Structures are given as structure tokens and as C-alpha cells.
């Protein structure tokens, strides 16, 4: 930690004590509940604190990585050398008629609840996606009949030189689980979505229906990152995995879910290596059986 002393003392001048964690286990910050320690993890409370923290990392030539809710993230067992910047405290949500404006760390569930409260429809699809709005724009998250691309009007992002830019929907290059944010390593500071007025009873009924479908089909009782693989064109990853006889396959503490073959779960005290080895086994088997390449949707960071 000695080589971080200058960085830490600058962060201590900027942030509250409780917003700087040293040697922090990433198990506490990812839905998979695996991963080694991050040297430093910070949780800025304002956009100004976030920007100043990034400038400090840049000045100290220290690697940093932005996370939202950690629901699509696998941190390797050796942990992360540098600073994890978690945006969960940047979670303000405001409503302006048919628009909802949220800071990057706001939870999709809270935005969806806010939409319901204001009789706004179009965001029901996001009610069960356990991510932040920044993570959702980065991944162009979607479920059932909805996707971020259908509702986002603009996002305020920061580039690697700390320039703040407003990107319109078409500039965000939102495609299947991809975006300009991912391509150019932007940081999502805030997002505006535009919805339509509707009967709140109908909105609530749709939320209840989607929640039921999710609970019925997905192994939500186990830690995971949702669908492990992207959907290969013309196929469903879960079906290819199931048809390869891999349903329920266990490797160390990781397993291919019995309930939904597209999910790799942390069944019992898995390590990141167990999960990565199982990902590889699934990829090799599906490729051999069907000549289809599966690519992880989950983002993988850190050291072995
Ligand atoms: P994180 O996991 O924290 O990060 C994911 C990536 O986004 C990382 O590369 C990170 O650097 C980047 N990132 C996060 N925030 C920002 C930001 N503000 N600026 C720049 N980059 C950022 N996804 C779906 O699309 N549909 C589903 O139906 C779905 N169901 C799921 C169900 C379960 C049980 C789980 C565990 C996951 C599911 N997911 C689903 C995956 C996940 O919830 C989404 O991808 C979500 O959008 C990720 O958001 P996050 O804040 O958790 O991102």
C-alpha cells in the first residue's frame, strides 16, 4: 500500500472517511459474490467528487475501474490493482413531466418504481434487472419487450480527458449489449429517459407479470450475473447449453443452473476460477457440438 500513500492522502482530503475502503473484498460488491480484493474502493457522493477522484487517479497514474451495482461483473480471485469507483451513492432521480432524469448510479428498480409512481409507462421491462442506469446504458440492458435504446433520450458522459459531453440516443450507439460508452470507455454521469402517461393499474399489472415470469424462470436464489453469455445470432445460448447436456454441470462451487441453462451460478462458495473454468467448458462443448461461439456477456476484470 506504500506506493498508494500519496493517492490515498489526496482521496482522504476529498472524500468522507466511509467512502474510502482499502483492501476491500469484491465479493461484497458483485452479484456473483466472488472475487479477490480491490486495493482501494471508493464511493463518491457527488459528481464533483467523482470527477476529482478520477483526476487524482490520473495524476497518480493509477488504474481505475467504474462499477455500478456489480450485477454484470466478475472480478478474478487475485483482485484488482488500483481503484474501483463504485457509483451507488450517485443515485438521485428526478421527474420532469414525461421524463425521468437519473444519476449514473441510480438503480433501475428505483427508476421503474418512480415511473409507476408518476403514471409513466415504458420502463416496466427494467423492474427486475438488478443494475444501475449507468450500467444499463453501457450494456444496453433489456428484457422481455424492452431495451434501454427504446427509452433513453440522452446521457451525460465523461470521456477519458474528463470532458463532459451530452450524447443523444443516436450518438450512444446502443446495440445488442453494446454502446459507445463501452467502445470509448466513457463514464455515464446521468441518463434521461422519456416515457408515456398511462393507467397506473396497467403499469403495476405489467410489473407484477414480468416479476412473476423472472422468478419462475430464473435461479434468483443463487448468486449470478444473469445470462452468462450473449445471445448468438440465430440461437439461444441456454438452449445450446441444455442440448449439449450441460444443464446442472458442476465445477468446484460453480454450476450451470438446473432452472435456466443460460445462467452460471455460484452454487456453493465458488471462486472466480471455478466460474471462468465452467465458462470455458461450456464454450468448448457448445462449439464442438454446434459450431457456435458463445461470448460472455459478463464483464471480467482483475488478476488471477
Ligand atoms: P456493473 O455490473 O457494475 O458493470 C457492468 C459494466 O458496466 C462494467 O463494464 C462497468 O464498468 C460498466 N459501468 C457500470 N456503470 C457505469 C457507468 N456509470 N459508466 C460507465 N460504465 C459503467 N441484463 C439485461 O440486460 N437484462 C436482464 O434481464 C438481466 N437480468 C439479470 C438478472 C440477474 C439475476 C442478474 C444478476 C443480472 C441480470 N442482468 C440483466 C445483467 C445486469 O443486471 C445488467 O447488465 C445491468 O445493466 C448491469 O448494471 P450494473 O450497474 O450492475 O453494472
The side-by-side strand order for the widest beta sheet comes to 6-7-13-11-12
Bound molecules: flavin-adenine dinucleotide
Oligomeric state of the chains in view: single chain
- Report the major sheet: 5 strands, antiparallel
Compute the separation of the termini in Å: 19 Å
- Secondary structure tally, helices: 8
Q: Which class best fits the helix and strand makeup?
A: alpha+beta
Strand content: 15-25%
Mean pLDDT rating: 97
Contiguous low-pLDDT stretches (5 residues minimum) are: none
Radius of gyration: 20 Å
Question: What does it look like?
Answer:
Helices cover 29% and strands 24% of the residues. The chain is α+β, with helices and mostly antiparallel strands. The strands form 6 sheets. Strands 6-7-13-11-12 form a 5-stranded antiparallel sheet, covered by helices on one side. The mean pLDDT is 97. Bound molecules: flavin-adenine dinucleotide (FAD). Flavin-adenine dinucleotide binds at residues 31, 66-73, 87, 104, 129-132, 134-136, 138-139, 141-143, 181, 187-188, 218, 220, 224-226, 299.
Topology of this structure?
Elements: H1 5-14, E1 20-25, E2 37-42, H2 47-59, E3 64-67, E4 73-75, E5 80-86, E6 93-96, E7 99-103, H3 108-117, E8 120-121, H4 133-139, E9 142-143, E10 146-147, E11 152-158, E12 164-168, H5 180-184, E13 187-194, E14 196-197, H6 200-217, H7 237-243, E15 250-251, E16 254-256, E17 264-266, H8 272-290, E18 299-301
Parallel strand pairs: 2-5, 3-5, 4-18
Antiparallel strand pairs: 1-2, 6-7, 7-13, 8-14, 9-10, 11-12, 11-13, 15-16, 16-17
Helix pairs in contact: 1-2
The structure holds flavin-adenine dinucleotide.
Residues 31, 66-73, 87, 104, 129-132, 134-136, 138-139, 141-143, 181, 187-188, 218, 220, 224-226, 299 line the site of flavin-adenine dinucleotide (FAD).
Amino acid at each position: 500500500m506504500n506506493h498508494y500513500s500519496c493517492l490515498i492522502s489526496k482521496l482522504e482530503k476529498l472524500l468522507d472517511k466511509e467512502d474510502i475502503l482499502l483492501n476491500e473484498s469484491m465479493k461484497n460488491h458483485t452479484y456473483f459474490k466472488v472475487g479477490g480484493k480491490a486495493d482501494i474502493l471508493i464511493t463518491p457522493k457527488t459528481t464533483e467528487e467523482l470527477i476529482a477522484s478520477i483526476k487524482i487517479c490520473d495524476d497518480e497514474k493509477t488504474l481505475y475501474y467504474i462499477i455500478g451495482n456489480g450485477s454484470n461483473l466478475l472480478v478474478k480471485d487475485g483482485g484488482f490493482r488500483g481503484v474501483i469507483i463504485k457509483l451507488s451513492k450517485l443515485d438521485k432521480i428526478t421527474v420532469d413531466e414525461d421524463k425521468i432524469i437519473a444519476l449514473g448510479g441510480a438503480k433501475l428498480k428505483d427508476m421503474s418504481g418512480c415511473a409507476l409512481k408518476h403514471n409513466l409507462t415504458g420502463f416496466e421491462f427494467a423492474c427486475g434487472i438488478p443494475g444501475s442506469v449507468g450500467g444499463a446504458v453501457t450494456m444496453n440492458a433489456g428484457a422481455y419487450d424492452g431495451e434501454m435504446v427504446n427509452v433513453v433520450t440522452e446521457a451525460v458522459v465523461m470521456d477519458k480527458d474528463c470532458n463532459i459531453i451530452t450524447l443523444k440516443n443516436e450518438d450512444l450507439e446502443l446495440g445488442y449489449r453494446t454502446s459507445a460508452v463501452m467502445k470509448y470507455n466513457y463514464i455515464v454521469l446521468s441518463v434521461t429517459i422519456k416515457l408515456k402517461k398511462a393507467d397506473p393499474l396497467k403499469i403495476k399489472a405489467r410489473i407484477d407479470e414480468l416479476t412473476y415470469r423472472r422468478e419462475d424462470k430464473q435461479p434468483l436464489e443463487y448468486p449470478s450475473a444473469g445470462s452468462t453469455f450473449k445471445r448468438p445470432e440465430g440461437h439461444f445460448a441456454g438452449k445450446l447449453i441444455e442440448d449439449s447436456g450441460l444443464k446442472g454441470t458442476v465445477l468446484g462451487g460453480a454450476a450451470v443452473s438446473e432452472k435456466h441453462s443460460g445462467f452460471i451460478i455460484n452454487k456453493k462458495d465458488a471462486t472466480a476460477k471455478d466460474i471462468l473454468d465452467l465458462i470455458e467448458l461450456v464454450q468448448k462443448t457448445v462449439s464442438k457440438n454446434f459450431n457456435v461461439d458463445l461470448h460472455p456477456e459478463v464483464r471480467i476484470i482483475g488478476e488471477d
